Amino acid sequence: MSSFSRSVSFKQRAASINSPGFCRKTWVPRLFCALIVIGSLVSFFFVIGCGYLYVLPNLTHTFHDHADRFSNFSGSEDTCDVYNGNWVLDDSYPLYNASECPFVEQGFNCLDNGRTDNDYIKWRWKPKNCAIPKVNVQLVLEILRNKRVVFVGDSMSRTQWESLICLLMNGLEDKNSVYEVNGNKITKQIRFLGVRFSSFNFTIEFYRSVFLVQHYWAPKHVPRRVRSTLKLDKLDDISREWIDSDVLIFNSGQWWIPGKIFGMGCYFQVGNSLKLGMPIASAFRRALSTWSSWVESMINPKRTQVFFRTFEPSHWRNLTLRQCNVTKFPLLEAGGKDSSSFSDAVFEVVNNMTVPVTVLHITPMSAFRSDAHVGTWSDRPSLSDCSHWCLPGVPDVWNEIVISYLLGSNEPASTSASTRFKNV
Fold it and tell me: Would you say residue 20 has pLDDT above 60?
């Protein structure tokens, strides 16, 4: 018999065995038929189960790998408030050595200026329901390739600017590839400082604009006590330099106090009208409105991601006498310093804007850090300083949060402009 005939014969016998009538027409007991059926079902479900156990983890892994491309933020986005948390000791901190970073002002390098305790550089901010991702410096350098990062504000802004430069330099082998574009030394007098990371073709720039609006000499025919004015309806004349940036971070508030305004003979002006009786809080709110109008009209949200950092609390024991008591550890209670009318004004203005602006609400977290101020460990030890921060220190955490936003890791619904950095 040919092989073809044997094959057909085998198929016919197999068909007869699997036919419904087989159990009725042959000598095979019905129990044996039941065992065959049960065995077939068990084998079927066993194969399906093995496939499930093998395929599902791989699908899950693939899904999370895909999701991680868009978010390194650990925790539930629905419940996470990155600004609600506490400070915890972490021996992996600090993120850099200030003495090895040429862009830290001598006045902020507290360890180099004689501070002997170093616990203050080892505190990490831990949100309650999530975690700020650990900075991947190489990834951030790539994300910022061919871009402009611009800080605008007062000396607190300059401190954050210095912090970000040092943090990113820590990931470079060739430190000489990073330089100030005009060869300037980092000082508080210069209105513009720009540091270029030549290997990645991006700059991190600082523009000193303590009020954000224009500060001019007093107009003619005004009371003698008026030496200068803040033109609340005109943004600083260097604002044209901020336009073509990719990341734009503002702050203001430290100079909006009576001693630095009225005490210096400075008053407020709107148009040609001098506002001698205008309170500082109202003037600040008016200046923010001018700023918001400028952002709405001059900033392209498809290119530029805008941030505004809230007020940084100080910890003076007696501001009039310039006395401060730098503690060894963070405070257990904020002592009312976790809120500020300046911060409230920022939220009020930003909430009414159409261009997305991310508010970096660092006021509450910074309120606990009475241990991290410069104190007498500056380049002028005769003057206590409980406003500015040591580096490394608290400004590094502000930058960690900024980086998490740029990576799309901590993006609230109101900051959709940050999504364009996700796929860089």
Answer: no
User: Which residues have CB under 8 Å from 176's CB, separation 6+?
Assistant: none
pLDDT tens digits, residue range 312-322? 999 988 877 78
- Exactly one of 155, 252, 340, 418 is catalytic; name it: 155
Provide the token pair at 198.
């030549």
- Residue 319, pLDDT score: 76
Q: Which of 154, 246, 385, 396 is catalytic?
A: 385
Active site (annotated) includes residue 65 = no
How many Å apart are CA 126 and CA 295, to the nearest integer? 32
Contact 218/227 with Cβ under 8 angstroms?
yes
Six-digit token string for 92: 């992996």
Residue 155 annotated to the active site? yes
Q: Which tens digit of pLDDT belongs to each residue from 178-193? A: 999 999 998 888 999 9
Q: Which residues of 217-251 are buried (b: 16+ CB within 10 A; e: fewer)?
A: ebeeeeeeebeebbbbbbbbeebebbeebbbbbbb
Calpha distance 370→81 (Å, rounded): 23
| pLDDT given at position 58 | 39
Q: Of 236, 371, 388, 396, which one is the catalytic site residue? A: 388
- Tell me, yes or no, if 273 is annotated catalytic: no
Neighbouring residues of 292: CB distance < 8 A, sequence distance ≥ 6: 349, 350, 352, 353
